[in-house]
UniProtKB/TrEMBL annotation:
Keyword field contains Transmembrane helix: yes
Transmembrane segments: 24-44, 65-81, 93-114, 135-153, 165-184
GO molecular function: symporter activity
Name assigned to this protein: Inner membrane symporter yicJ
Similarity comment: family membership: Belongs to the sodium:galactoside symporter (TC 2.A.2) family.
GO CC field: plasma membrane
Entry keyword Amino-acid biosynthesis: no
Organism: Leclercia adecarboxylata
Taxonomic lineage: Bacteria, Pseudomonadati, Pseudomonadota, Gammaproteobacteria, Enterobacterales
UniProt keywords, alphabetically: Membrane, Transmembrane, Transmembrane helix
Single biological process term from Gene Ontology: carbohydrate transport
Organism domain of life: Bacteria
């Protein structure tokens, strides 16, 4: 399973830099934004886990979320790194809304994605191997992101840093979407949930 989530999850340092130096928000406000969304995540993560675990479809419990959320996640990734030419207060609202929607769709796709390792195989060694492979790919994707995001933004935008970040994230969003759809089409859920009986 290629780790598609890493290609679209920019590190905190990039987000801080973008919001303060490119988007134009006050650093204290950026801190409030990031903290508030983390607090919301503490609520939405377990809710999403419960929803995914109860999902029933012909594709399984977790795979369909890769299909359903891939495009919304890519869209909100691009919108979050888009700098509208608005008043400061309007941009603050835009930043909070788009970052919240990105975080929400990230939760909706990442939790089912991470849960796939438990339903691909019953073999404990294979499950450990799947998770180990995923963590290795996370490291590689994070390194590639660190090395390429700023050069891509400079190449696409030149002096227009806002355009550069928007275009760079568009490229990453397209790559991430393709990886999600590839995972959806190639992975199979072989372990079915136990049927509960009333005894």
């Amino acid at each position: 399973m290629p780790d598609a989530t890493s290609s679209l999850a920019p590190s905190c340092c990039f987000v801080n830099y973008f919001y303060t130096d490119i988007f134009g928000l006050a650093p204290a406000l950026v801190g409030v934004l990031l903290l508030s969304v983390r607090v919301i995540d503490a609520v939405t993560d377990p809710i999403m886990g419960a929803i995914a675990d109860r999902t029933r479809s012909k594709y399984g419990r977790f795979r369909p979320w890769l299909l359903w959320i891939a495009f919304p996640y890519a869209l909100f990734s691009i919108l979050m790194f888009t700098t509208p030419d608005w008043t400061y207060n309007s941009k603050v609202i835009y930043a909070f809304v788009t970052y919240f929607l990105l975080s929400l769709t990230y939760t909706a796709i990442n939790i089912p994605y991470c849960s796939l390792g438990g339903v691909i195989t019953n073999d404990p060694k294979e499950r450990v191997a799947c998770q180990s492979y995923r963590f290795v790919m996370v490291g590689i994707a994070t390194l590639l992101l660190s090395l390429t995001l700023l050069p891509m933004a400079d190449w696409f935008g030149g002096e227009d840093k806002a355009k550069g970040y928007q275009m760079a994230m568009t490229v990453l969003a397209l790559i991430g979407t393709c990886m999600f759809l590839f995972s959806f089409s190639t992975v199979r859920e072989r372990v079915r949930p136990a049927v509960q009986t009333n005894g």
